[in-house]
Structures are given as C-alpha cells and as structure tokens.
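Late entry, written up from scratch paper. The run itself happened at the end of the previous shift, but nothing got recorded in the book at the time, so transcribing now.
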Amino acid sequence: MSLRADAPPTAAAAVRRFGPVQRWVHRTTAALMGLCVLTAACLYVPQLAQLVGRRALVVTVHEWSGLALPLPVLIGLASRALRADLGRLNRFGPHDRTWLRSALRRDKRPASRPAGKFNAGQKLYAAWIAGATLVMLGTGLMMWFTHLTPLVWRTSATFVHDWLALTIGIVLAGHIGMALADPEARRGLRTGTVSREWAEREHPLWRP
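Output as recorded:
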C-alpha cells in the first residue's frame, strides 16, 4: 500500500522542527495578519465595502488586530526555543549568499542551495515582514490618534500605510503560494515534525 503525499513521516524518519510555542506564535500571528488584510480590503475596495457594510465595526476590528499583531512574538519570547529560532533568522552567513545567488539563477539543485534551519529567503522574508509590521503599527497609531501629531505627519502616515499595506498583501500572497507548493514545510508548522529526507535535502546544514 502506498502512502499519501501528505502522510506524516514514521517515527524513525521524523525530525522535530518546531515546538508548540513556535507553532502557536506562527498561527496566531497569521490569524491577526489575515484579519488586518481582510478588514483593510473591506475598507479600501468599494465592492467589498458595499458587500460587508458596518464600516465602523470593520475599522475597530482592523485597529485592534493591528495593535495586537506584535503580541504573539512578544509573549513567545518567554520560550527559549523561539528565541533560538529568532537568533537563527537574524544571522546571515556565506551559505545564505550562495543560496540567494542560486535562487536568482533559478538553480533548484539542492546542492546549490545550502541552508541551515532557515534558508536565506525565509530570513529575508522574516526581516522584511517584521520591519513592515512595525512601520504599519507606527503609521496606524498616527492615523488612529489624530490629536497627537500635526496634519502633515498624518497625511504622510496615511500615504505610507496605504502603499505598504498593498505591498504586504502582494508579499503575503507570494509567501502563501510558496507554502502551498511545499506540503512538507506546511506539515512542519502543523505537526512540528518533518521527514528526515526533506530536512537533509532542503536544509542540509541544519543539525536538529
């Protein structure tokens, strides 16, 4: 009998990739980010705004989900495992430059893309989305508490907030598309384990 493509690896072939805290932080952050994107679309796309209605409620959900967005990571910092993963994401070595050059050349051979627990693309995405989230939080607060800043600041904040939101939507779509193309990576975030064969192929420098 053949195993399904999405079947979990056997215990002997399984490698622990993420613990419960890392998975909780990722899921909660993804849910809050999804709320931000969905409510933003309902506020700025006329067809969706007419379909959903209740603009005041949508604005409230958007504001509070955006304000809560950094909280999962901040709470998760109590976990040593999460802090270790954040340290890995924050370190960029020579092998990451090799990975990026291969990605730009569209060279998909595993040997040409050396990676530790996280590859260079994941590190760049994590850094970019963290910075974008902080900018969105800052500009959103200027737009929310209008009496605290001059009009020119609020106008600039609105411009940055709107265009960065569009950019985030595009980048998130790419992130989701890449995740859909890699069921093993999704399994790692869902169950915490991946197959040893996948780990050795995609992350040969990672020593779990």
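Residues 100 and 121 are 7 Å apart (CA to CA).
(Scratch paper discarded after transcription.)
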